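Example record

One chain of 139 residues, shown exactly as stored in the release files.
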Amino acid sequence: MFKINLISAILIVFFFSGSVFSQKTFAKSQFNGTWQYQSDIFKIQVVGKNKLKIEYQGLWEYKFEGEPIANVGEAKGFAVLQNNKAIFKFKEKPECRMVLKFTSNRLIVKDNGKCEFGRHVNPGGNYRHINSQKPKFNW
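Predicted structure tokens for this chain:
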């Protein structure tokens, strides 16, 4: 009797914690590809169990004295995927931290405000999955 009550209690806690039932899981192919928000691009590929290869290319275009010019930023590295979220850090800017959250066809990115890629270049945004093919990386 005690074993049944203990098992029931564990199952109830597990169920209401939402750790399994509230998280939608995706196939690896749903992470792979190119994601775009305005002029910013994330290239992502699953390269191992829960390991992502990531490249970010940020761009902010404007005119200076009538001529087109742009500020750019980039990041490349790896992240571990857990429950459709990944925390992306890279060695060139160790203080920068991006949280990537995958939904059915969106990638929501938030950064900690310490990435400093260049004026108005910010990886934060709601990215669309524009291509699911294996991306070509610049590194």
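Notes: Confidence is low (pLDDT under 50) at residues 9-23.
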